[in-house]
Amino acid sequence: MPQGARPLSKPVYLREQATGMVFRLAWQPAIIGRPDDNLPDNEMLAVNLAPLVSGARVSRRHAQIVEDGGQLFVESLARQNPTIVRAAAGNETRVEDGRVPLSDGDVIYLERSKLALKVIVRE
């Protein structure tokens, strides 16, 4: 676990919908993006999307997953590269300033790269 990270209270995974690639989130904040040794918190990168075909369109620090009081949230880290949450219940929320809650089955959609990451929570 990276220095400064905290464990999540339950197993959480993100499954990239097109390839089926699964990422286990072992800590928080769990950064979604691409590696860059020149940026802070490179060791916090939990979901490296660089190897994917459209991974170059993902911001190096695109978004992060955090947990607060047992509730998962996604926060956008890239102002010019939109992140959207499509809830399992059907509604859609653009992640801008602040946090958007996540539940099992929700999909985090990285708009410019057209990547979709389904949230899987194991209780």
Features:
123 residues, mainly beta, Tumour Suppressor Smad4, 5-stranded mixed sheet, 0% helix
Structural summary, described in words:
- The protein is an all-beta fold and 123 residues long.
- It has one domain (12-121): Sandwich (Tumour Suppressor Smad4), CATH 2.60.200.
- 0% of the residues lie in helices and 44% in strands.
- It has strands at residues 12-16, 22-25, 30-33, 45-48, 61-68, 71-76, 83-86, 92-95, 99-102, 107-110, 115-121.
- The strands form two sheets. It has a six-stranded antiparallel β-sheet with strand order 2-1-11-10-7-8, with no helix packed on it. It has a five-stranded mixed β-sheet with strand order 4-3-5-6-9, with no helix packed on it.
- The mean pLDDT is 95.
Briefly characterize the structure:
Helix content is 0%, strand content 44%. It is an all-beta fold and 123 residues long.
What's the CATH class, please? Mainly Beta
What would you report as the Rg, rounded to the nearest angstrom? 13 Å
* Overall SS class: mainly beta
Spatial order of strands in the largest sheet = 2-1-11-10-7-8
* Overall body shape: globular
Q: At CATH's second level, what is the architecture?
A: Sandwich
Kindly report how far apart the N and C termini lie.
21 Å
State the major sheet.
Answer: 6 strands, antiparallel
Count of beta strands: 11
Q: What name does the CATH topology carry? A: Tumour Suppressor Smad4
SS element count, helices? 0
One letter per element, helices H and strands E, the order comes to EEEEEEEEEEE
Tell me the domain tally. Answer: 1
